[in-house]
Please model this.
Amino acid sequence: MSEIKKIFAREVLDSRGNPTVEVDVYTRDHMGREMVPSGASTGAHEALELRDGGKRFRGLGVEKAVRNINKVIAPKLIGHDSTHQSEIDDIMLNLDGTPNKAKLGANAILGVSLACARVAAASEEMHMHEYLGQLAGNKDFRLPAPFMNIINGGKHAGGNIEFQEFMIVPMAKDFHESVRIASEVYHVLREHLKKNYGVESVNVGDEGGFAPHCHGGAEGVKLCTLVQEPLDMLTKAVDALGYGKEIKFAIDCASTSFYEKGRYLVRGKRIDGNDLLGIYEELCENYPIVSIEDPFMEEDFEMFAAMTKKLRKRIQIVGDDLTVTNTQRIHKAIEHKSCNCLLLKVNQIGSLSESLESAQLAMKHGWNVMVSHRSGETESHFIADLVVGMGTQQIKSGAPCRGERTAKYNQLLRIEEQLGSKAKFCKRDCWLK
Model:
């Protein structure tokens, strides 16, 4: 019933209008389909996303990856049991034989890996989150805290904000109420931005958040005041609705993107890691921040560790570009005590089995795990099922806006409904260890 009969891949478009890979895997009675996301702000150590080069699609075509699936991977997997996830992934990894999936492409391997899990769940007559829970060895299904990026900066937007994401974390009594209050805050924020910054400020970035041009930058204005401005915008929107007790804040700095020659360039000022740590401390004193992601450049395990030592009892320090869902990088971060939360992106490592292994390693050492989308997303809601299946209690999936983002939140609403009286929301302090 679960034997793979056919695999077929095609080139489709992601949320930014760039090509990506879609894969169909067939058994006798079922078909599983998955699509592969893509990042704009990518870590140097991520697995290779195979692109075609040349003029077609400005070099971003994925016909090579599609061909690798249809001509190389498919013949090797036909006849294998789709429920044997680790075996399937190992076959593809051995076929590739490179440390970063440069031969077949991480986008080719991942598309097949996820589609096999999808058809396996159907073959086993299980909900997707249940099947992924079985793979992860977890039965404690919890709806996650949604980390919603509603002000975009950095590479995700066209404004003048260096930090890449300013997120709200709604924590009402259950998941659907948390989505409701977040949506309300999003729309009130839009009204405030339009009134105070002009109509152009409510254009949205890649992940659905607004991309305003901050007023900061006048002579004599302190740097910390400049980076506070987006947080002040969030505070006003939250306070206008009286949700101060239910909503926390989070930041993804993506610091590698504004690091050069040993310094961080923020609003024309070059500062070192210690100065930047001081800014983070001040922000945490003045705002209800519970999570800061990639506060330093992707090779600075030591400054990550210094921040974790100082702030870990108050917030979580998240490794994304630092760890890239890679067990070798995670081991190094564990040795240095660099952070206490892993950002898990399945396309950073390129297979479902390796993603689960990375999450289990992080949790074994007392870390949190936040499952994340990418800026170039698809309408697939796989990560919504994954975060519930693993029981990791945190998901980052953009603003409550744009179909490829709301697809994840809507699937979580369905899962909450499916679980009924057994539905559990994440713990209110799920970011603390």
